[in-house]
Amino acid sequence: MRHVHVQRAGAGRARGVLGGLLLLALLTACQPSRIEAPPAGGQPPTADAPLAAARLPGYGDVRLVGVADLSGRPRVDYSLQDAAGRTLIRLPDFPPNQDYAYDETRAAAFADLDGDGREDIAIIAGFMTGIGPGGAEPFDLAGFYLGSAQGFAAAAELGERVNAPGQREHWRSIDELIEVARGATP
């Protein structure tokens, strides 16, 4: 299993450009890939960095990217791009956007979650309620997109099952999330 770690933005323009080129080279060599937050003390990927990569039938090599929208309540929108950065598929609204304020994407991976032989997408993102004394404390929520011949559909019900009280403590990493999601997919 290959994990690629992305450093948070703000580390300096030169290091950022070199790191971006290295990341692009790694992402194009990986299929499928996963990016996960580094161990304690490291920084998670930024919302606009490539998050995962895969080779999809009909699209070739693609990478999952997210763009944070900080106007109004913070949210994130995900899409699949080709190596040149052209958007191939704009994914449906990320279900956790509906209830909470987006903080950052922590991990993402392509994996077949429902056993149909097609790549699906699993994402762990940090959110905040923004209400009360602990409102600025981020917490993780999972979201999913299931692949089909027609494209990708948001799997809100799967996210609700996996994010339910008593389930969230069963996953801390993207690999654990994928295993929990596979067990929760009908």
Which keywords apply here?
five-stranded antiparallel sheet; alpha+beta; four-stranded antiparallel sheet; 35% strand; disordered N terminus; 186 residues
Q: Numbering strands along the chain, what is their spatial order in the largest sheet? A: 1-6-7-8-9
Terminus-to-terminus distance:
25 Å
Low-confidence stretches: 1-47
Order of helices and strands: HEEEEEEEEEHH
Helix fraction bin? 10-25%
**Measured on Cα atoms, how large is the radius of gyration?**
16 Å
Number of helical elements:
3
- The tally of domains stands at 1
Strand fraction equals 25-35%
Number of strands: 9
Provide the residue-averaged pLDDT.
Answer: 77
Largest sheet: 5 strands, antiparallel
Protein structure class:
alpha+beta
How would you summarize this macromolecular structure in one to three sentences?
This protein has 186 residues and is an alpha+beta fold. The chain has helices at residues 13-29, 156-163, 174-184, and strands spanning 34-36, 50-56, 60-69, 75-81, 87-90, 101-111, 120-128, 139-148, 151-154. It has one domain (13-184).
Describe it.
This protein is α+β, with helices and mostly antiparallel strands and 186 residues long. It has one domain (13-184). The chain has three helices and nine strands. The protein has helices at residues 13-29, 156-163, 174-184, and strands spanning 34-36, 50-56, 60-69, 75-81, 87-90, 101-111, 120-128, 139-148, 151-154. The strands form two sheets. It has a five-stranded antiparallel beta sheet, with helices on one face.
